[in-house]
Amino acid sequence: MRPIQAHISIGAMAHNLRVARSHAQGARVFAVVKANAYGHGLSRAVRAFAAADGLAVLTLEEAANLRLMGVTHPILLLEGLFAPDEIAACAELDLWPVLHHTGQLDWLERHPPPRPLPVFLKFDSGMHRLGFPLAAHHEVLTRARALPTIGAITLMTHFAQADEAVGVDWQLQPFLRALSNQDLPWSSANSAALLRYPQSCGAWVRPGLMLYGASPFADTPAQQLDLRPAMSLQSAVIAVQTLQAGEATGYGQLFRAERETRVGIVACGYADGYPRHAMNAPVWVDGRPGRSLGRVSMDMLCVDLSACPQAGVGSPVELWGKQVPVDEVAAAADTSSYELLCALAARVPVAEAD
Ligand SMILES: *Cc1c(COP(=O)(O)O)cnc(C)c1O
User: Fold this and answer.
1) What is the C-alpha separation between 99 and 77, in angstroms, rounded?
2) pTM above 0.85, yes or no
3) Ligand 1 atom having least distance to the Cα of 163
4) Superfamily of domain 231-352
């Protein structure tokens, strides 16, 4: 059998949820489980996050799956209704849709559900992606409150730079100024905001990434935030090449040896979800830290064995996990851990750890 495998730790996910709660200032916690729980599997997330106050997903299909798995928590649909034909199912499955444009209010007017839907009204406080303009808050709220098809209202916004030095206040303060006199609960914080800006917690927080043990901040390792990596990607050396000075390895011959170099060929490539653009990414080979070499191919990548003369065919390799933070691999590929975790390929067998 090809030696690649991912290990996913339910215990680490449950721990990370406790960390989120410890920062949440008493707010209720939606565990964000979109994108197959950031690559960790929806059913594992259901078990790991049993202590959450709710779960947040993108689609009706994901939400229906959660209900089939017996989830009785509140379920938030982060992008709300995509079409009016979703309203009935929303009511039937007892889901809380986000409403972010007036068309969705029209749909609710014309296709009334059997009972009023609790909704999250999303306002655009500067990200300019989804949301009613803050300036229209009076009309939107007047209309939403008058619609008999809308039940409890929670106000919502989303931050564009919670992970950067500029932070959240440039969005949060106008949001609160416009809406604080409405006497409604509100929700704004993703992982980064929750960790750094207690003033952003409101009634509900919406952590995703941190629950899987990665850091939203380029300058702060996950370990420093007391987060435990939930996914580890493991494989093994399946061949060893000894390059002579001047010889190169892999497509494009991107790594050329300056001196005799032992290179391990590892059974993991971009078709497994490893980022093709990773350059000199950290790896852990046979219990020691090392680096990848040259270009990642579809099914293989190369690692430097100079520092581990004892390593050979069969030596275990950690691509990311406890020894190699996924954030560091992402940085070596000029991307984020969000992308790497979500992109774990379906062909990689997954085992559960603790
Ligand atoms: C994905 C998402 C989150 C979670 O963000 P993280 O950065 O992963 O914590 C929160 N809110 C909304 C609206 C989202 O789409």
Assistant:
1) 9
2) yes
3) 7
4) Lyase, Ornithine Decarboxylase; Chain A, domain 1 (2.40.37.10)
